[in-house]
């Protein structure tokens, strides 16, 4: 009898031990710590939130930046990336940055135009014709001046990144002639120029946050949208909107932003590391943006239900003609000086 009781108690203790070990009850919920890592207590964490998939030019550039910065600082700075709007979406990421709830975001330039109206110039359709032109402006002297506009908003601007050119994608019909847009509900990012662009085509612009876009299409809240091939492919928009027009009519670029107090709190050597890592990641971003859109386009070509079409030269001329009034009215805007500068830089 005594032997039975002792064996039973022993078995129960062993069982409890095994369950406790599996669920790590005695660790108080804290994560295991690498004791060999020096200065863990002084490690600085950058939480970097963005809304797109990891497998996109922005998602990849964020990862590249994180790797470069950790290398350069020997692990003194650790960057944690939150993709796919898992922390914040279009509507609340800027507030989260300003409040210091995250240290970095990279919203599209269009979404920043309410805060920085001079950036509207970059939304003008057919302002750029090649990726090289985009890089020359965003990554050069004019880009620097545009980034300096953030001084009024207490945000540290680190760089502009590129995704590529936006294309049109629609559920019901191909969008080739300018009349094809008539009475359609077209999703536009919150930018006056983009709203006006669709109004000129007799369509109704609808502002939908990127994270709600897929369900909004499924619920027929919008008929069409403009986006890059990499976003169309990575978010599967082509499954619910299968007519894609390669129109290359507008730029999807990003402003890479840091909370200003956080930036000011970094010692000078770490600020230099951030700048260096950002310069390298930016160069790399411009390179892969082009490649990723090309690779995803090839994948879309293989999708049996996707109807892909390109604009002929004459069709593109018609679109450009239709958008001309945007340029005329833009001449009266505060930042119109940037339009002249960009046009002369690109010899347009
Ligand atoms: C969009 O809202 O369509 C884009 O700005 C998303 C992104 O960040 O590329």
What this model shows, in words?
The structure is a single chain. The protein is an alpha/beta fold. It has one domain: D-Maltodextrin-Binding Protein, domain 2 (3-Layer(aba) Sandwich), CATH 3.40.190.170. It has twelve helices and nine strands. Strands 1, 2, 3, 4, 5, 6, 7, 8 and 9 form a nine-stranded mixed beta sheet that branches. Helix 2 links the parallel strand 1 and strand 2. Helix 2 runs antiparallel to helix 10. The chain starts with a helix and ends with a helix. About 6% of the residues have low confidence. (2S)-2-hydroxybutanedioic acid (LMR) binds next to loops.
Q: What count of domains describes the coordinates?
A: 1
Question: SSE order, as H and E?
Answer: HEHEHEHHEEHEHEHEHHEHH
Oligomer: single chain
Mean pLDDT: 90
Protein structure class: alpha/beta
CATH architecture classification name: 3-Layer(aba) Sandwich
The largest sheet is: 9 strands, mixed
Taking all Cα atoms into account, the compactness measure Rg is 25 Å
What would CATH call the class? Alpha Beta
Intertermini distance: 98 Å
Bound molecules: (2S)-2-hydroxybutanedioic acid
Please tally the β strands and state the result: 9
Q: What share of residues is helical?
A: 40-55%
**Shape assignment:** globular
Question: Please, what is the CATH homologous superfamily?
Answer: Bacterial extracellular solute-binding protein, family 7
Can you tell me the CATH topology? D-Maltodextrin-Binding Protein, domain 2
Unreliable spans are: 13-33
Strand content: 15-25%
């Amino acid at each position: 009898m005594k032997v039975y009781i002792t064996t039973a108690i022993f078995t129960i203790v062993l069982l409890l031990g095994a369950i406790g070990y599996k669920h790590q009850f005695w660790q108080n919920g804290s994560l295991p710590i690498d004791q060999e890592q020096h200065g863990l207590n002084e490690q600085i964490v950058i939480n970097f939130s963005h809304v797109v998939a990891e497998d996109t030019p922005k998602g990849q550039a964020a990862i590249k930046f994180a790797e470069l910065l950790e290398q350069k600082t020997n692990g003194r700075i650790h960057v944690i990336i939150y993709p796919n709007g898992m922390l914040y979406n279009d509507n609340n990421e800027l507030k989260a940055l300003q409040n210091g709830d995250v240290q970095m975001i990279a919203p599209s330039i269009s979404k920043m135009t309410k805060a920085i109206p001079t950036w509207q110039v970059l939304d003008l359709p057919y302002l750029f014709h090649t990726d090289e032109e985009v890089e020359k402006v965003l990554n050069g002297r004019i880009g620097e001046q545009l980034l300096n506009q953030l001084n009024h908003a207490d945000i540290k601007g680190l760089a502009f990144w590129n995704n590529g050119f936006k294309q049109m994608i629609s559920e019901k019909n191909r969008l080739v002639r300018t009349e094809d847009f008539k009475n359609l509900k077209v999703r536009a990012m919150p930018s006056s120029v983009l709203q006006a662009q669709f109004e000129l085509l007799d369509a109704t612009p609808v502002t939908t946050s990127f994270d709600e876009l897929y369900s909004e299409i499924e619920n027929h809240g919008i008929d069409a949208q403009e986006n890059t091939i990499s976003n169309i492919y990575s978010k599967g928009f082509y499954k619910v909107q299968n007519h894609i027009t390669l129109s290359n009519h507008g730029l999807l670029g990003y402003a890479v932003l840091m909370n200003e107090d956080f930036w000011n709190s970094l010692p000078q050597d770490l600020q230099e590391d951030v700048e260096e890592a950002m310069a390298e990641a930016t160069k790399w971003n411009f390179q892969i943006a082009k490649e990723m859109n090309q690779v995803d386009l090839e994948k879309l070509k293989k999708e049996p239900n996707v109807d892909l079409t390109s604009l002929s030269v004459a069709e593109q001329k018609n679109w450009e003609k239709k958008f001309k009034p945007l340029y005329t009215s833009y001449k009266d805007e505060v930042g119109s000086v940037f339009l002249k500068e960009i046009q002369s830089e690109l010899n347009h």
